[in-house]
Amino acid sequence: MLCASGRLLAARAETSLFAPPGGRGPALRFPRRELHFPGQLNPPLWDSLTGRLTRHNASPHRRVILKWGRMQPAVGRGLAGSELRLRKSRCGSRAARSVGRDGAIQATARSPKPPRRSSRRFEEVGRQALLALVTLLSFATRFHRLDQPPHVCWDETHFGKMGSYYINRTFFFDVHPPLGKMLIGLAGYLSGYDGTFLFQKPGDKYEHHSYMGMRGFCAFLGSWLVPFAYLIVLDLSKSLPAALLTAALLIFDTGCLTLSQYILLDPILMFFIMAAMLSMVKYNSYANRPFSAPWWFWLILTGISLTGALGVKFVGLFIILQVGLNTIADLWHLFGDLSLSLVTVGKHLMARILCLIVLPLVLYMAIFAVHIMVLNKSGPGDGFFSSAFQARLSGNNLHNASIPEHLAYGSVITVKNLRMAIGYLHSHRHLYPEGFGARQQQVTTYLHKDYNNLWIIKKYNTDSDPLDPSFPVEFVRHGDIIRLEHKETARNLHSHYHEAPLTRKHYQVTGYGINGTGDSNDFWRIEVVNRKFGNRIKVLRSRIRLIHLVTGCVLGSSGKILPKWGWEQLEVTCTPYLKQTLNSIWNVEDHINPKLPNISLDVLQPTFPEILLESHMVMIWGNNGLKPKDNDFTSKPWHWPINYQGLRFSGANDTDFRVYLLGNPVIWWLNLVSIALYLISRSIIAIAMQRGAQLSTKVEELTRVLLQGGGQVLLGWMLHYFPFFLMGRILYFHHYFPAMLFSSMLTGILWDTLLRLFAGGLASSSLAKSVHATGILILILGTAYSFYLFHPLAYGMVGPLAQDPKSPMAGLRWLESWEF
Amino acid sequence: MLGFLKRPIVVTAEVNLNMVSLTVASLLSRLWCLSYPRAVVFDEVYYGPFISFYMNRVFFLDDSGPPLGHMLLALGGYLGGFDGNFLWNRIGAEYTKNVPVWALRLLPALAGALSVPMGYQIVSELRFSHCAAIGAALLLLIENALITQSRLMQLESLLIFFNFLAVLSYLKFFNVQKHSPFSLRWWFWLMLTGVACACAVGTRYMGIFTYLLVLCVAAIHAWHLIGDQTLSNVRVLCHVFARAVALVVLPAVLYLLCFYVHLTLLYRSGPHDRIMSSAFQASLEGGLARITQGQPLEVAFGSQVTLKNVFGKPLPCWLHSHQNTYPIIYENGRGSSHQQQVTCYPFKDINNWWVIKDPERHQLVVSNPPKPVRHGDVVQLVHGMTTRFLNTHDVAAPLSLHAQEVSCYVDYNISMPAQNLWRLDIVNRQSDRDTWKTILSTVRFVHLNTSAVLKLSGAHLPEWGFRQLEVVGEKLSRGQHESMAWNVEEHHYRTSQEQRGQELELHTPMKANFSLNLSFMARFLELQWRMLTLQSEEAEHRYSSTPLDWVTLDSNIPYWLNPRSSAQIHLLGNLVIWASASMATATYVLLFLWYLLRRQRDIHDLPEDVWQRWVLAGALCGGGWAVNYLPFFLMEKTLFLYHYLPALAFQLLLLPLVLQHTWDHLCRTQVQRGVFSALVVTWYSAACHVSNMLRPLTYGDRPLSPGELLALHWRDSWDILIRKP
């Protein structure tokens, strides 16, 4: 915030200092970098300003530098000095001239000769080589022993199965958006997996089924996290050691490694999150060349990666939030830059809307379109969706079906609740247990298709068989009083003044009577929502309510799950509160009446936006439904950063091949310390700056990295961590990993900067350099050694558990809550 | 020294007659006929029992909010001489003679009445005109919903009062800060801000958002102060320190204090005891304390104990066993061990007694001297009535299939040996040689053969288990969970076989006196934790509403109905005021954004000081509305219209500010100003008219015919109780 306002002020300071009056002409619009070299433009002013750093007068100095560092990465590097050299000779010479007194002294102190072309090229090669090395290490660690264990691990049972569903094109339901599973399915398909493996439960052997394609794909994406993080940190801090440290933290983290090695959504999700972050950072670094080709490239890539992240899991929303905040801040500064005309600002705005909103939306919908097109066979997910939706799926009884259009007495029907994922009105030959109202037959709702969902509509007062061909067809009309007889058990839908089993304020609904003979509590008035009396009732289309005649209550489902005695189906009640909610509105789905002509259902097919909306409603409902039980031990968000407890991926006993998802404690605890340290140093710097402390140029530059680069990453960490505290759904340890990536980047930036600051206080620069290098080296070697210690967690171990003193891992069980 | 001889003593009094008349008017509107109706009105039925509990000093637990509000209501009862004897069982029940209705309703009414002059003061302290200040006060004065709510034993008017007080005293402090920091007035208003914040939080949890708002504003102002380089470092430090003490430490201390008073007042055990831990219960007079008094502190081999589950969810219960065995075959075809059932039973029962047995001795009595059980000791648990041993083995539990069955071992002479050794694991031990103490120690029983932990699974057993709660052995000790922890509640020693049936306690110096053992902090933390985590049964209420309904006043709440005359009280706002307040808020936001965008382009429409005032007013009044309203969207509890009133009160402060701003800066010509003032006058008369029309529903003082009621039924979604002729 502070640095942001600094930047904002900088823009104004520049214009007020250097802009000629009314200077919105072409001279100022483009070559901002030329104009904003005060040294070059106006040396006397520059000199007079150096050294005067009190808040009121001379803050332009500081702000100019802030601006300058941002606009001119090359100069920024020159100032930060050390290993990095200037890349472009044009900028280099200019920078050398313009560095000003302090900068010039530093530059000479560090590199007595101006950088030569050959040495620059050499360094460029060196940098590429480092990147290649880091990438190679990452791939090597991720692909090492990828085939082990050759059985289903942890959530592979879900995501592998869902990959198979895509290959078999059967429709299923999952709480996450489809992209991740589609990619897994694609990878499986391309690598020759035929979708026949059942993925029934963790521990099932793969045997002859080809699973390496899917694992390899996930590991491939997971491996890219390291180079991505490396590049992000490099761009944010302009410091190679910081980037190297970050890369080391991620390469040697057993948690990231484990999570990347299996058929899971997380590597895919993290790949897109990091890709979005990287392209955002890259595109920020082209802020001085708006609308240039690389600028567009990175902006578009940001949009695409955001779609990817959101398309894999809804957690992708957090990175969207981060990019959104960044974009808003960016636009705000552009808007405040008076050298830009409003038209230009409008162009900027449009570009972002196009690339960060429109493009992702289109892509996201495209993903769903593919998802829905691929899955065109009826499968286990049908019941979660509305009747009209199901009509699309081949194999579903509604597909290409034709049924009578209007309800008539004697029709056999199924009645479905309008709220997503409540299901069909259902009854079965089981009574409510003692203590839960009257001991009569249970009435529930049930998500799956079943003979017990069938009901017969009868007139309330006659028992004659309406299907007798001698009687004329009589349609059911809005406002009629009817009886619903359960087809299998011949009991009537019934309600009375007894408490419902779970929702105590509602009335109980039961099945009552023998062979259709009951009492006046079996009478219901059927009403169509928003219709006049006398209308017929249409299949699928009409939204109906059933009102109990005696008590005046409305038939509804509370959506609560009944205990074991109710087979964990959902509770049906009669609610005396007449407010219209979806819970008490139903529609007729199946309809059998031999006396009526059938019509085709194709006219009822939903449109794509309807499908999209419905899928999301069901997903959100599903996510909310994942509530932890009271008496179970569940992972809490505060457990995660302290690495309190891992997740068993495979095996529990000492004879099993065990894989345990646990972060490398050295790295994680270092991250934890770094966050605290970062917050402390940040507040100290902020207060010092607010008090108008004088900072040397070099320190200034370092604090800028700390505040801006570190700030970006810290924001990422917070956005990917804190929302979990508000979530009601069940949480797992692996939810922390996106945040952990950001936290590692913060560690890299922080330690590099702190070491530089600390070393900067030392007398000689060569000593400072070696102190800095030693510090970074110690950290990297330390993490590497800890990886050597903990690598069996990720690559698998057999033998006695760590509780056993004989186990080789015994000494490494630093917390009692770890179970490996 | 003798200055008064030279100069006369002069008292100059400045009386703002506007303030006085506003106060009088608001007192009249809130206190008029306060004890009418002499019947329980709506939520009085909820708060009433708590007042009675305070009068009788009986402990209770209410998850709806911290105790300060309840205590203030009870203070009214105390001053009115209420003896607590009234059965608060239904809305509309007539109060008996002993209930001092007037006194009980007085404090909320006073708080409601004083909010009106405070609204006036806040607007003037925001440096807006006197006219705007009067406007704000008048709006607060005639708003029907505020009147209704403050005339009854309910807490919203207290919350509004404290919210306003916090904002007002912060503004006073902020204005004093400009010219005389560290003066007496400066300290007074600063401290008062802290006190008011603490009171707001102590009345309702919602108050915490207003507190945070004030804290944020104070932090921003302090940040500017840090940047002020005319101040020395020491002085800046003093400023920051004073604010930290007054706005952070003081409220925290006061919040604790309010719980301290609460717990000191309520020292008798009562109906809500069961939710609390054994140690807490034992610290109350009567109840468990009566039973546990004088029982030995240290559990020894041979002790007879009852074991209570610490987590106690879904129900507080004790480890239990009875003659019946697990069914050989469950309903789904799985087999069991057919041994004796072990369950958790929510009632006191003779079958809850267990004997702690030393596996190496054969006696079931305590030796002399007693041999205490320590952490890590291996014990057997013998069921008192059936003398069978607590056992677990590799058989799936009846309902939790992943866990082990726990039974009392019956030897069927098949190859299923007894596995009844348990290692005692004291969770809250100080050292590894700690002894097992009654009530104070929470322990886990770790099975020696399978390292399973005795756990309450929370599931209800079916018919064959009498719907008691299932107890299982959790194989993997997946972290510490309270459902695995148990504590001894009742405890006896028995010395030898001869004395069976006759309680004779060993002479032991370590008698327990638990009320002394539990510190205030421990009690406070437990109470606060239980209050926050208590899951009250999801109460669907006929008159509940959603936050979206509130802004547009789509719903009302019928509070009370005179069964004979059809006179009725409703919580019903003044439509004109609600609509214009919402519009004013929207206008503020739009104007603010407009100005902000223009400022970013360096176009300053407003002079700097006007802009500063405009921002501060928006931050406090508009912000007050936002923080008291928006959090409700995230809440899952049952919500009522009255939850919106604190937000509305802030909105009413913002309304005249927007009007004045329009007059000052948007109306350019004299004609525009004339038209604008005419509009404002018309609008206010309309508001007064509506307020007057709704008056019978606010006070409930007039019998209403069905025709009159129908005339007031302005919206279909309102619930006006019209009797069918």
Brief digest:
The complex is a heterodimer of chains A (820) and B (725). With 820 residues, chain A is an alpha+beta fold.
Keywords:
heterodimer, A: 820 residues, alpha+beta, Trefoil (Acidic Fibroblast Growth Factor, subunit A), 2 domains, six-stranded antiparallel beta sheet, elongated, disordered N terminus, B: 725 residues, 11% strand, transferase (chain B), Dolichyl-phosphate-mannose--protein mannosyltransferase (chain B), endoplasmic reticulum (chain B)
Into how many domains do the coordinates of chain B divide? 2
Number of helices of chain A: 26
Measured by DSSP, the beta-strand proportion of chain B falls in: 5-15%
User: Average pLDDT value of chain B?
Assistant: 88
Coarse morphology of chain A: elongated
Describe what this molecule looks like in 3D.
The complex is a heterodimer of chains A (820) and B (725). With 820 residues, chain A is α+β, with helices and mostly antiparallel strands. Chain A has 2 domains: 376 residues, no CATH class; 199 residues, Trefoil (Acidic Fibroblast Growth Factor, subunit A), CATH 2.80.10.50. Chain A is 49% helix and 11% strand. Chain A is built from 26 helices and 16 strands. Chain A has a 6-stranded antiparallel β-sheet, with no helix packed on it. In chain A, helix 15 packs parallel to helix 26. Chain A is elongated. In chain A, 44% of the residues are buried. With 725 residues, chain B is α+β, with helices and mostly antiparallel strands. Chain B folds into 2 domains: 412 residues, no CATH class; 219 residues, Trefoil (Acidic Fibroblast Growth Factor, subunit A), CATH 2.80.10.50. Chain B has 22 helices and 14 strands. Chain B has a 6-stranded antiparallel β-sheet, with no helix packed on it. In chain B, helix 10 runs antiparallel to helix 18 and helix 18 packs antiparallel against helix 19. The longest helix of chain B has 33 residues. Chain B is elongated, with a radius of gyration of 33 Å.
